[in-house]
Every structure is written in C-alpha cells, then in structure tokens.
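S1.2 Input.
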Amino acid sequence: MDRKLPESRFDLSTYWGRVRHAADVSDPRMLLVTSQDVSTAKQIVAQYRKGEREASPELWRAKKVLDSTIHPDTGEPVLLPFRMSSYVLSNLVVTVGMLTPGLGTAGTLFWQVANQSLNVAVNTANANKSHPLSTTQLATSYALAVSASCSVALGLNAVVPRLKRVSAGTRLVLGRLVPFAAVVSAGVVNVFLMRGEEIRKGIAVFDPASGAEVGTSQTAAWHAVGETAVSRVINATPIMVLPPLLLVRLQRRFRLGPAAETAANLGLILATSFAALPFALGIFPQRREIAVGKLEPRLRGLRGADGAPLATVVFNRGM
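S1.3 Output.
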C-alpha cells in the first residue's frame, strides 16, 4: 500500500487555509530541528504511506519538519539561512539596512547589492531543479537584478529632493519609499530571469485526479512565473512600506534620537515581517489549476489516466 500524503493539514483551496499553511512552513522554530528530527520525520511519513500509521498530530509535525527543511526535488536539506523558516531573520539585516533613513550613495548601493545577493541565494536554493540555470545565466540574472535595484534607488534618490510642487513632508515620505520601489522592480526582473528556462521550455502539467504528468506547457509557465512576480510585490509591500511610514509618524511625535530610531526601525520591521509574511504568501495557491482550453492547441486533447478527456490540469506555481 502506498498512500498519497496530503499536501497540508489545512484546506489549501481557501485563502485562510493557505495562510495557516504558510505560517507553518515559515515558522522560525523549524530552524532548531536536527538531522535526527529530519530522519524521524521521514520514518513517520514513510509509515503513513505504507498504511502503518494514521493521520495524527505527530504526522503533521513530521510533515512540517520536512516541508520547512527538505527540497522537494532533491530530497536534501536546503542550506539553513535560505530556508523559508529563516526568511524573516535572513532578510532582517538587509531590510533594516535598506530602510535606514539618510543613506548616502555608498550605503544605498551596498544594501541594494546585499539584498539582491540574498535574493539570488534564496531563489537558487529553493528553485525547481527540472530546469537548472547555468553559471552564466545565474550571473546574468544577478547582475541585471542588482543593476535594476541600484538604478531605481539612485535615480529616485536624485529625483525626490528636486520635487518642488510637493510639501517637505510628502518628499520625506516619498524618500522613505525609494527602497520599496527598488526592491519591487529588481524582484520582478529577478523572477523572470531566474525562471526564464521554464517560460522557454514549459513546465509540467498534471492530471488532477491521478497526479500523473500529462505534458509540458509554456502557457502554464507564464501563469506560474507571472503570479510569482506579483507575489513578490505583495510580499515586499507590507515589509517595505509600513515600517518606514510608521517610523516617520513616530519621529514626528516623539523626536527619536539615533539609537531609539534604530531600535524602533528594527522592531517595526521584525513585527511587520512576522505578521505579514503568511498573509502575503497565501495570496496565490502553490498548486494551480488551469482549463485545458486555455493551454496551447497541441495540449487541448489531453486525456487522463482513465482515458477520459481532461477539462483541467494542475501545475506547481513555485515560489
């Protein structure tokens, strides 16, 4: 007997279910799991698949350990700083750096490069391994993402102070949002570059009933990559927008000194990151369904494992 392991203990067809699942996968406590914990989790899951164990809190805990630690394609642990469970903590330093008020040109360049370096590392560690990027493609993606973020950040930093028809307060707020514009533009560029092979070659689509692969589709790839790019914007928005705007209000009300300003900035970013991340990650389902009629003409006669024509197929959107 080989039972299929449920994707989640939560209902992933609902937004709230996806939020709860994302909170599970990004739980920073999973950084404390040991190699023995992973081995035990694998044994528990294997027993369930063989019919030797039923669904239980222990099974869901084991699945949580594996989902937050193991790469689904390779079966090997993802390098610890680049796991989703480390996402908030790994990004905390560079986010605080980018959102530090009064950065000069050198500081802006340094933190934008640091942020894109971390993004490329996370993307590479968690990427779908069916279309691995060559070293040249990876270097090109990194260089273009860094160029995009630095160009936007430096360009807007030069433009905002010259805005004469807006108040000083508005210029202050716009200046604090420059890192957001830089991160979003570079993030979108990065997604399309890092996943360009998927768009060119297509991604696997599956029979919803049996889970069997029934073809590869470039249309599905466009949906997957496009939604991922949008999700990057959504993920960045609360973390890069709320803390700087709240910090402006705090400064106006309490006239914070440098140390207090740094502590407030750190606290706001940390609290917003932990609170907002699951809600942002849950916007789009990881497993997407698309009508066969919307795929390429060559795929419109797809049939399932039972030989019946398929009305829909599913695909993995990726992260």
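S1.4 Remarks. The beta strands are 203-206, 213-217, 287-291, 312-316.
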